[in-house]
Model the fold of this input.
Amino acid sequence: MHIFDRLRAGHNIPVDDPDFHLVHEKVAQTRRLSVALNAAPTADAFRQQLSEIMERPIDPSTTIFAPFHINVGLFTQLGRNVFINHACVFLDMGGITIEDDVKIGPRVNVITEAHPVDPTQRKTLQVAPVIIRRNAWIGANVTLLPGVTVGENAVVAAGAVVTRDVSPNTMVGGVPAKMLKEL
Done:
């Protein structure tokens, strides 16, 4: 099985895996393409460049402000009418799904990658997807950690670190994020 298929299947991958060089090569390619992405003079040019990175078209209703950083790009799915503000970072080897009508504030980190806490195992890449359901709003400077699903219509307050799922129609905030109220 190809290393990217193993990642998408949620397998842990040791960094000394004989195919891990393919991950490094894709990340290097994405970094090179990201220079042009973040220098794009128009929203259309930005979408076109991001489409090249992600190897699929970006819907014209989606708006993303530069700078935008993504480490692979192949494993991010964007819905329609998505808005992503400045300086967001997506580490997408575990898969990121952003459904329609999602709003993401500035400096949001969507992280699908981690390493074991055990120092003897730390040279292993662990991945888990992040899913942001329809009409959710992610506030400024939020971090979404691997394996998290943000429910439909949910709000994540600015500065939160989300370590577990957010129920639909709720607002969460804090470090770690806790439910603040039902919407």
The mean pLDDT is 96. The helical segments are 3-8, 20-39, 43-54.
